[in-house]
């Protein structure tokens, strides 16, 4: 599929990533945050990666959401192994350093399985060897990086990357930059809080949404039988929370309305975008409306407390009580630690709630809080 290119943005960002000023913390890596479905992954693949390569970097890309069942730690290790596989010289050197003088790479006397977390060859050694061999700095791009902290191995990978960063950014090597994206600022913030992890202190930057230039590009390509005014479409795009798919789906819907007078097309397009927004909202809220009163209660309190949410504190338990009484007055369900715990795991199973390995919770989708707010669902939650 053809996409709108964002070359200028990519070059600017790539330059910043690769330039290390002595006063900046950007050698700790960089976080790009933007809501889901607004074009982060597309930008990384189509624009940022080539821009980094043009500036002389070796890019290793790990998408922690590509396979939701895969352990995030394994995915990061897998991305490094995959890059190694195309550098035979590096494999030989690593094998030698692991004490295997005679290496038959094809004969598999050295297996890439030996590279990894707690394996013979650390991520740090592997990345250093890769960078030295290529004579280039490495940029490790981790898409949906918040997933790294949902598993122990993912956490281990972050520690390993911290070590790798320190090693590669020393004067002996060409450097390692880590660029991470995610859709939820609260979650990404958690990755920056731990002193011994790869992202400690890394700047968190709002990744810019697609802009008027994209809308212009979209309108130019559209073939609906009448021109749309980009300024009007941009307003619709804003209403759609900058999600290109909603514009695309609206255009698809119109394509099959036969015999539509040209003069009606702009208004019909606007209506079709509104329909798409409504469909997307209903879709998101469908699960929410199927929750038990207690699950709904826990979700509402979490939505209001945000990054201050402490699931089992006395004040939170009181908030649950108040909400449950308000939404389900007749019920005799009691709120206690064990049924809150159960509600939390049910919410996780329904992919509404995200849990870090250390027991910190957040809404899976930040946008859900505003939808619940719009429906008045958050009114019963007492102020903290
Ligand atoms: N630059 C672009 N040009 C055209 N379509 C885009 C562009 N960026 C994103 N899209 C479309 O928007 C949708 C979501 O993009 P994606 O990159 O997966 O978002 P995210 O990673 O932020 O969730 C995809 O269907 C993609 O094709
Ligand atoms: Mg993505």
UniProtKB/TrEMBL annotation:
MF-aspect GO terms: ATP binding
Keyword Nucleotide-binding attached: yes
Keywords (A to Z) from UniProt: ATP-binding, Nucleotide-binding, Plasmid
Keyword Nucleotide-binding: yes
Coiled coil regions, renumbered to chain: none
Protein name listed in UniProt: ATP-binding protein
Organism of origin: Cupriavidus basilensis
